[in-house]
Amino acid sequence: MSEENQYLLEMRGITKTFPGVKANDNVNMLVEKGEIHALVGENGAGKTTLMKILYGLYDSDAGEIYYEGQKVDMSQPQKAIDLGIGMVHQHFKLVDTLTVTENIILGSEPRRGLTINYNEARNKVKEISENYGLKVDPEAKIQDIPVGMQQRVEIIKILFRGADLLIFDEPTAVLTPQEIDELFEIFNSLKEQGKTIIFITHKLREVKTVSDRITVLRDGKSVDTVVNTEEISEKDMAELMVGREVLLRVDKEKANPGEEILKVEDLHVRDNRGITTVNGISFSVKKGEIFGIAGVEGNGQTELVEALTGLRRAEQGRVYYKGEDITNLDARSIKDKHIGHIPEDRQRRGLVTDFSLSENFILGFQHQKPYSRSLFMNYNLINNHAQDLIKEYDVRTSGYNSLVNKLSGGNQQKVIIAREFDQQPELLIAAQPTRGVDVGSIEFIHKQLIKKRDDGTAILLISAELNEIMSLSDRIGVIFEGRIVAVIEGDRADEREIGSLMTGSEEVEVSE
Amino acid sequence: MGTIRELLAIPLLLTSFRFATPLILAALGGIFNERSGVINIALEGMMLFGAFAAVYGSGLTGNPWIGVLYSMIAGLSFALILALVCVTFKANQIVVATGINIFASGLTIYLLQVLFGVAGTSPRVPRLPAVRFLGITRYNPITFIAVALVPIVWFILFKTPWGLRIRAIGEHPSAADTLGVNVNKYRFICVLISGTLAGLAGAHLSIGEGSAFVREMTQGRGFIALAAMIFGKWHPVGAFGAAMLFGYAEAIAIRVDFAYIPSELIRAIPYFITIIILAGFIGKAIPPKAIGKPYFKGED
Questions:
Q1: What share of chain B is helix, strand, coil (3-state, %, to 5)?
Q2: How confident is residue A365, by pLDDT bands cut at 50, 70 and 90?
Q3: What is the mean pLDDT of residues B223-227?
Q4: Which structural domain range is residue B208 located in?
Q5: What mean pLDDT comes out for the span A131-139?
Q6: In angstroms, what separates the C-alpha of A473 from chain B's closest C-alpha?
Q7: Which is higher by pLDDT, A177 or A468?
Q8: Residue B292, in any domain of the structure
């Protein structure tokens, strides 16, 4: 019995099957009281599923959960809340139109008669906020506050319910480096006050920085619980996750830039709400170089890419491609000029997920020879073409006829990359090329991008992952509020400097 | 000049309350279900069935108050169908609600035949008493109920825990779910409230303002109520104001004689205003974000 009690949480033999996928297969996880426990694994390894089972959002098919030595039934989030388990989800669960206080008290409102006791609510929020150093503005609406503060609201929300075990699902994905540091300080202050933290991530550096112990998931199975984070290197951790040796650093030669391929001058673009989000942007990309755009999401990157690829009208400014003015040409004309596009939202823009791999491999080129002949599609050729690409780009699938929605995120991304690369683009616009993709696939995609660069393709890389921008780019443009605020040589880039430029907290002269 | 004096006459303004009553009630009901994330374009059908049930109940018992009770039960029963099919079984809300509207139209005509043996208009039944207010205009009690409900609905939505939960569910159901709020239970209840109020609006038309049921007597008021709700930006006070404006337009059409302008055109004013509002010319109306989407447990 005494041995049982050393764990705050025990999950044993957890199994959960979704149609066609075994997301969790006999998974075990043991969490000690007062520790920061990292749950790591590739995408699709079943980390989030496991935590959703713990939080009562999914029902498990098999397995048992013990909390403080007692067997517990987790069929409803309310049961987790009652036990003192709280979860900060990857996509924040905040109501934009309500205030910070309203979001925090929702579902557990302090009352005075029939009404909500807002005074008591505000005081309690203030108290938690001061105790843990979580700065928030209780009266502000969620839609008006930055992402970092939204995350603090989420943390207060679960502390408000008296949580002792806090689960964080990829909390750093949306944060700038500075905000990540702040979050880890919060982690430590929570730990000092006796709270236990489970922290889902696939970023190895963060695991090393902040966690005490690790559970590794691979293909829905728990591979290993590492007793102490100190005792394992990032490289070994990556191997445990992927199941083979992984190259963490991108190896590349110095770039050999040629003539200017893409030139953007004073471009202005509005978003769907009519707000000008690209606000006079200028830059150029040369043959054989990777120009990376670093920035916090929502600073105009999406609209910039859409304007360059003909998916959105530019209000002002010019875009030149090999000297030719291509401003506001339609998407097909741009594609026909050998401009490749890896869209940021692969399922909405990059693929028709209900179509087969073969068909997805020719999307955008389906009207051209040799894929179509007068009235008919040449399916023999299309299928052979698919078979070649599957092999060359190592797409893990049961065959070219299977539907794209059956593939994991990383393999879906490989389909897009294979398609765009195969058309020998002279300019490649890659937006978030490794978003939601696991370590193994990231390694592959990065290698391919470098290879294309060395073959002489001009690459415009847009990514919210500062690491990715820094390790791939030959030149880095930092975007803030729709403008390039600085251009830095890739080999002279400093993470802190770029981080503060991204948040607009540092003024730097733009140097070309 | 005479026309303008007539347009601004106090009795005319006071009469607007009578015309606005069904719109206020149905719009308040609509606010409940839409704030919780369910579209209810079946307000029209629920109102129509309520109007019929009121006449039936009043005729059966000779007590118009029993008629009022019947109307609310009728609205509730239709709402139960909508809630069960759309909230519990997650069917398309527009399709099901359209079905309910068509069903209400056919059912009331059929029941007129079966229960009263007539085709277009029911026999006369006891109507609700009318009360003189401020010594000028006579109102039936449902008008007072409708006006009194405006602050009550406001209080529920913006001062109580239930209101906060309803508002959260319509915007971000999974946020509420993760905090232990039972999304589909709240939605179910909101749809039932909506149907009950729409049924009551029907009673106002049949045994409040008149004393008989006429086929298709709601004449699109359920849809106008939806427009009032949108015009009022899903806020009870705003919806009340919009309903009053529409009620005023209807009062003008009936009470004021305009030279050269046919009264049919005046009567169409609310519909014109509705179209203009829906097209977004008068301020932008932003609906609850999760509206119309069924909620599945565990989704993001």
A1: 70, 5, 30
A2: confident
A3: 92
A4: 2-128+139-278
A5: 91
A6: 34
A7: A468
A8: no
Residue in this structure with the two tokens 């006071």, named with its chain if needed: B14
- Enumerate residues 211 to 230 of chain A having a beta carbon within 8 A of any beta carbon in chain B: none
Probe site for chain B from A97, A170, A275 (most B CB atoms < 10 A): A97
Amino acid at A230: E
Q: Residue A403: is its pLDDT beyond 80?
A: yes
Task: Tell whether the model's pLDDT for residue B77 goes beyond 80.
Answer: yes
Distance of alpha carbon A278 from alpha carbon A484, whole angstroms: 10
Determine contact, residues A37/A196, Cβ cutoff 8 Å.
Answer: yes
* Per-residue model confidence (pLDDT) at position B255: 78
Chain B residues with beta carbon closer than 8 angstroms to that of A106? 164-165, 168, 175-176, 179, 181
Task: Flag if B177 and A111 touch (Cβ within 8 Å).
Answer: no
Q: For a pLDDT cut of 70, what percent of chain A falls above it?
A: 95
Q: Which distant-in-sequence residues (6+ apart) come within 8 Å of A290 by Cβ?
A: A255, A449, A450, A453, A459, A461, A472, A473, A474, A475, A490
In this prediction, residue A2 has a pLDDT band, given cuts at 50, 70 and 90, of: very low
Starting at the edge strand that comes first in sequence, how are the strands of the sheet with A324-325 ordered? Answer: A276-286, A260-270, A314-321, A324-325
Nearest to A86 by CA among A41, A128, A146: A128
Q: In chain B, whose CA is at the least distance from the CA of A51?
A: B298
Residue B294 in domain: no
- Inform me whether the C-beta atom of residue A173 falls under 8 Å from chain B C-beta atoms: no
Instruction: Give the CATH number, domain containing residue B157.
Output: 1.10.3470
Could you confirm whether domain A248-338+424-512 is CATH 2.20.25.530?
A: no
Interface test with B, best of A75, A106, A114, A272 (most B CBs within 10 A): A106
Look up the CATH architecture of domain A2-242: 3-Layer(aba) Sandwich (3.40)
Establish if A77 touches chain B: CB-CB under 8 angstroms: yes
B167–A95 CB contact, under 8 Å: yes
Domain boundaries, chain A: 2-242, 248-338+424-512, 356-423
For residue B297, being part of any structural domain is answered with no
**What residues in B contact A91, CB-CB < 8 Å?**
300
- Chain B residues touching residue A58 (CB < 8 angstroms): 298
Residue A1: pLDDT band with limits 50, 70, 90? very low
Q: How many domains does chain B have?
A: 1
The reply to whether A2-242 and A248-338+424-512 are identical in fold is: yes
Token pair for residue B156? Answer: 């529920």
Question: What number is the ipTM of this complex?
Answer: 0.89
pLDDT at position A508 over 60: no
- CB-based contact (8 Å) between A89 and chain B? yes
What is the per-residue pLDDT for B157? 97
A contacts of B171 (beta carbons < 8 Å): 95-98
